[in-house]
């Protein structure tokens, strides 16, 4: 799930009691048929801009909440598991992926859940990967007999073995509210959509570079900002017709399994989906090899890879292209804004 998908919703959460009571309305749509004949699945989540400005919730906190929820949802766990996980991370790290804090560090605790390498949770690098850390949390939670019926703070303590076993309780109301809001977004975006559905490949992510702008006339797509590891979704049904590492430096091949730079040429790890209507979508700069192979079929909302910065890139983002032909080239590139708007999908500015 995308870090910004629930941006308005999560920014409006009462992250600490001092912020007071914030009012938010969030409603998930089921797939709807647009005027153009395409099915879309979108979420409306709005909060007062004044109240949003009153909070200090950062992009990292938003991303981490989405990651914790999404990892649990993809395992098919009940929402109670995500409530436990979010309450735990809120207590342990305030939803921040903490590194070693020097003299202030609690033993060798790291990451969202303050897991310890010395206790067998993983290497420091693994623990500071939010997906890995969330996965390990749920792994342990599922080994605890009867966790589903436990109080949230008791279930969290059974996983964490904290010196403050009751500390998680105060976060339960906020964790439940966050789960309710995230469910309206994640469930919509990952729903089984009807044939012909379209969805945003990186829901809520802001556009940081446009299509063929004055300062980048050869830029054949949109750049959508998101953190490393954010899931990228197939925009619609289709067949994968290309998966490739495209990166060179000074004329020599360059690895796509590491971050690129402005000096590196190419799209990095990328994938193309040929759609039944004769058009094509291209997804560039993935952090690792895409999850599908040439010839595979995909459906709208399938996770096809994860945001990275491979190839010609100065930071993590999705470079998204749309083409009017399955044989994609610059001559048949088209503005993704218009392409997706025709299919009922909009992008954040």
Automatic annotation (TrEMBL):
Keywords noted in UniProt: Hydrolase
PANTHER family: MUREIN HYDROLASE ACTIVATOR ENVC, PEPTIDASE-RELATED
Single GO MF annotation: metalloendopeptidase activity
M23ase beta-sheet core domain segment(s): 219-327
Domain of life: Bacteria
InterPro entries hit by this protein: Cell_wall_metabolism_enzyme, Dup_hybrid_motif, M23ase_b-sheet_dom
CDD domains referenced in this protein's UniProt entry, alphabetically: M23_peptidase
Upper taxonomic lineage: Bacteria, Bacillati, Actinomycetota, Actinomycetes, Glycomycetales
The protein, known as: Murein DD-endopeptidase MepM and murein hydrolase activator NlpD, contain LysM domain
Pfam families in UniProt: Peptidase_M23
């Amino acid at each position: 799930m995308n870090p910004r998908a629930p941006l308005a919703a999560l920014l409006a959460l009462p992250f600490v009691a001092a912020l007071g009571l914030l009012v938010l309305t969030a409603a998930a749509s089921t797939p709807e048929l647009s005027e153009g004949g395409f099915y879309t699945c979108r979420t409306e989540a709005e909060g007062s801009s004044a109240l949003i400005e009153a909070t200090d919730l950062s992009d990292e906190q938003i991303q981490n909440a989405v990651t914790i929820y999404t990892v649990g949802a993809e395992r098919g766990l009940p929402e109670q598991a995500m409530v436990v996980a979010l309450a735990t991370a809120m207590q342990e790290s305030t939803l921040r992926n903490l590194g070693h804090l020097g003299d202030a560090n609690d033993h060798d605790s790291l990451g969202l859940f303050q897991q310890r390498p010395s206790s067998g949770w993983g290497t420091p690098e693994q623990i500071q990967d939010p997906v890995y850390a969330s996965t390990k949390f749920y792994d342990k939670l599922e080994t605890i007999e009867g966790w589903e019926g436990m109080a949230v703070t008791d279930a969290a303590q059974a996983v964490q073995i904290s010196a403050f076993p009751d500390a998680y309780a105060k976060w339960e109301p906020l964790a439940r509210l966050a789960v309710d809001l995230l469910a309206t977004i994640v469930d919509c975006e990952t729903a089984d959509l009807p044939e012909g559905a379209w969805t945003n490949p990186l829901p809520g992510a802001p556009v940081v570079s446009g299509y063929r702008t004055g300062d980048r006339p050869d830029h054949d797509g949109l750049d959508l900002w998101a953190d490393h590891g954010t899931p990228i979704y197939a925009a619609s049904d289709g067949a994968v017709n290309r998966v490739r590492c495209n990166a060179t430096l000074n004329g020599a091949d360059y690895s796509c399994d590491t971050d690129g730079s402005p000096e590196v040429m190419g799209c990095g790890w990328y994938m193309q989906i040929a759609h039944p209507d004769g058009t094509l979508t291209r997804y560039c700069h993935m952090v690792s090899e895409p999850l599908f192979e040439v010839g595979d079929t995909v459906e709208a909302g399938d996770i096809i890879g994860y945001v990275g910065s491979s190839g010609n890139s100065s930071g993590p983002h999705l470079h998204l292209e749309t083409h009017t032909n399955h044989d994609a080239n610059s001559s048949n590139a088209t503005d993704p804004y218009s392409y997706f708007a025709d299919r009922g999908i909009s992008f954040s500015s």
